[in-house]
Design goal:
- The strands form three sheets. This protein has a four-stranded parallel β-sheet with strand order 2-5-8-10. It has a three-stranded parallel β-sheet with strand order 1-4-7, with no helix packed on it. Strands 3-6-9 form a three-stranded parallel β-sheet, with no helix packed on it.
- The radius of gyration is 15 Å and the shape is globular.
- It is an alpha/beta fold.
- The chain is built from one helix and ten strands, in the order ββββββββββα.
Length: about 110
């Protein structure tokens, strides 16, 4: 699916027999509770300006492959990722929780 840079929300979708689930040129993308079946090289090819999240998806391939995860794009609770991506996702989640729990800085 080609995402042209506007807003796309895919919920409980199935991507089957495709090399890439979503190719984005920017904008906002939400991918929730989707299934990506094999054969698949990479689920997301995202422009660095893309924002949004991939949450609770079941995949049988790499979420980003050789592509870089955009700074404004989050991932959480995805299943079936390669071990290195699973560890990176867990680390990002822990950092986000710590940031949310941190007290605000004192006023100047």
């Amino acid at each position: 699916m080609l995402h042209d840079g506007a807003e796309l929300r895919a919920v409980e979708c199935v991507f089957d027999n495709t090399r890439s689930g979503v190719i984005s040129r920017g904008g906002h993308l939400e991918l929730e509770r989707c299934r990506v079946e094999a054969p698949c090289d990479v689920v997301l090819k995202l422009n660095p300006r893309t924002t949004g999240h991939a949450t609770a998806n079941r995949v049988k391939c790499s979420l980003f492959g050789g592509w870089q995860r955009p700074v404004g794009f989050r991932r959480h609770s995805n299943v079936g990722l390669p071990a290195a991506e699973e560890a990176a996702e867990a680390e990002e989640g822990a950092e986000a929780e710590m940031a949310a729990e941190a007290p605000p800085p004192p006023p100047p």
